[in-house]
Amino acid sequence: MNRAPIFVGFAVLAVVAVATMVLLPSKDMLSETAEFTAPGLDPMTIEDARAEFWRLTPALLLVVYDAFGETEESTIYDTLASVTHGDALEYLYLERVGAMAGGGLEEADQTIHEIKLLNTRVARDGGTLAIDASWQVIGTVGHAEHLHVRGNTYSADLSVSPIEGAWRITDFELLEVNRDTAGETFLAPQTN
């Protein structure tokens, strides 16, 4: 029995399969013209997001801070899931829930007024943006009958990727927190 035709047939099938994988884009490949949503911003392509990371990064971080201002676990998770994914979602969710378990942050008592990017760099790796970010958060935190103005500075390495049609933080490594400019105390306004 001559097996050469069988081996030739398998070889042709293998070549066709490899050519198909190389020449046809997979569903995981991202189009350069595909646009992805971000909170409060117009949809952005990957290149738009790289060029405007200084707008995209604070937009995503603001939603993270909104989630941290919540007290219901499901609301915290759902809010974080709208702008984070994978390892970043798990890390940030556990950070917030851990703060609640420690007896702190039992009430929604923070208001973010501004997120200002400081020394920040971005690099693109395919559809993912690697962002080395430093930012300052300016806001108020309430305790009983008084408010503290906070101006904390943070540094982190972030990965931001398009997931399910939206830009999301997919990796978050907090590098430094500086509370030297924590602010001043003043009486809270009457709410009656």
Number of helices: 5
Order of helices and strands: HEEHHHHEEEEEE
Q: Structural class of the secondary elements?
A: alpha+beta
Q: Rough shape?
A: globular
Share of β-strand residues: 35-45%
Rounded mean pLDDT is 80
- The number of E-state strands comes to 8
Helical percentage? 25-40%
Cα(first) to Cα(last) distance is 96 Å
Ranges where pLDDT stays below 50 over 5 or more residues in a row are 8-28
The largest β sheet comes out as: 6 strands, antiparallel
Radius of gyration: 23 Å
Q: Which SSEs are present, and which pair or pack?
A:
Layout: H1 4-23, E1 36-38, E2 41-44, H2 46-51, H3 53-68, H4 73-81, H5 87-101, E3 110-117, E4 121-125, E5 128-143, E6 146-163, E7 166-178, E8 185-187
Antiparallel strand pairs: 1-2, 3-5, 4-5, 5-6, 6-7, 6-8
Helix pairs in contact: 3-4, 4-5
List keywords for this structure.
single chain; 192 residues; alpha+beta; 6-stranded antiparallel sheet; two-stranded antiparallel ribbon; 5 helices; 8 strands
Give a brief description.
The protein has 192 residues and is an alpha+beta fold. It is built from 5 helices and 8 strands; from the N terminus they run αββααααββββββ. A hairpin with a 2-residue loop joins β1 and β2 (41-44).
Explain this structure.
With 192 residues, the protein is of the alpha+beta class. It has helices spanning 4-23, 46-51, 53-68, 73-81, 87-101, and strands at residues 36-38, 41-44, 110-117, 121-125, 128-143, 146-163, 166-178, 185-187. Strands 3, 4, 5, 6, 7 and 8 form a 6-stranded antiparallel beta sheet that branches. It has a two-stranded antiparallel ribbon with strand order 1-2. Helix 4 packs antiparallel against helix 5 (87-101). The N and C termini lie far apart (96 Å). The model is unreliable at 8-28 (pLDDT under 50).
